[in-house]
Write a structure and sequence with these properties.
Layout lengths: L6 H6 L14 H12 L10 E6 L2 H8 L7 H4 L2 E8 L1 H9 L9 H24 L3 E4 L2 H4 L1 H7 L6 E10 L13 H4 L10 H20 L2 H10 L4 H9 L2 H17 L7
Antiparallel strand pairs: 1-2, 2-4, 3-4
Helix pairs in contact: 2-6
The protein binds flavin mononucleotide (FMN).
């Protein structure tokens, strides 16, 4: 994928890449991506995050299952895991005889937002360097198992991650909902039913066609007997039971990692 000439043009050209060549990412390119990542705004400039760079094949093999068997974890040469991290800061507070209240859910949210801002800065930088990326929702869903494999100490929780490498595909741009369905000027304007239908109209057709063109998904859709795209989302892809299981993982790990103690 050729690097686009200006920053907004390259943002507008973003596509998730799921097929990779094995070529390693040169150290100087990785360094630039990480430097761009940590330039992100950060709450109080506390930088309450850590980035785990995983290149080791054996480790990526161990991470493959908690990343829900997504082969790009093995195929792409680099996996970045962005963690909400108050561990470092809290160690420093202890060493400095300073008070520490970073053991509650608000602290987690502050750190998680910091981590996600870094991840997106790094993602855009990687794309500007001509690399491809694809986020992995499994990072949060299975944060407990991934945290154990990455040997995270207390007060550290993985929240976002992506693979990065040289693309071996040039996927088409995915649609976005129209801006007027996403943006509210001055205050929120609750849309009426027609406006909701209009917002999703094009996606309903194009999205349905896209899923029907994927044999594995088509089979699951037919087996589930669903009739429209909205039903695909919640009957096939993101079920209540699946969400409940992942919510349990995340809450359990937040508790284990000491982010619910002050609540
Ligand atoms: C937080 C997050 C998690 C994601 N997880 C996955 C994933 O596990 N597997 C995957 O193939 N794509 C994943 N994606 C990529 C989305 O499917 C993709 O961004 C979306 O379909 C829009 O496509 P585009 O990025 O090519 O524009 C994730 C994206 C985000 C932001």
């Amino acid at each position: 994928m050729a690097a686009a000439p200006d920053p907004i043009a390259h943002m507008l050209a973003h596509r998730s890449v799921r097929r990779y060549r094995p070529d390693p990412v040169p150290d100087h390119v990785l360094h630039r991506v990480l430097e761009a990542g940590v330039r992100a705004s950060s709450s109080g400039n506390m930088q309450a995050y850590s980035i785990v760079v995983t290149r080791d094949r054996a480790l990526r093999e161990r991470l493959h299952a908690p990343h829900m068997g997504q082969d790009m974890v093995l195929d792409a040469p680099v996996l970045l895991t962005f963690c909400a991290d108050f561990h470092r800061m809290r160690r420093w507070l202890a060493l400095s005889d300073a008070e520490d209240g970073f053991d509650d859910f608000f602290a987690f949210m502050v750190a998680a937002i910091d981590a996600v801002l870094v991840s997106q800065n790094a993602a855009l930088a990687a794309e500007a360097e001509g690399l491809g990326i694809c986020y992995l929702g499994s990072t949060l869903a299975n944060c407990d198992e991934i945290g154990r494999i990455l040997e995270l100490p207390k007060s550290v929780v993985p929240v976002a991650g992506f693979v990065m490498g040289t693309p071996a595909e040039d996927p088409p741009l995915r649609d976005r909902l129209p801006l007027d369905g996403l943006v509210h000027f001055e205050t929120y304007h609750d849309p009426d039913d027609d406006a909701i239908r209009a917002t999703y109209r094009e996606r309903e057709t194009a999205g349905w066609a896209r899923y029907m063109a994927m044999p594995e998904l088509r089979e699951r859709v037919e087996a589930a007997g669903v009739r429209n795209l909205a039903q695909i989302y919640t009957t096939v892809k993101y079920t209540r039971a699946g969400y409940a299981r992942y919510a349990e993982n995340v809450l359990g790990y937040l508790r284990a990692q000491g982010f619910l103690e002050g609540n």
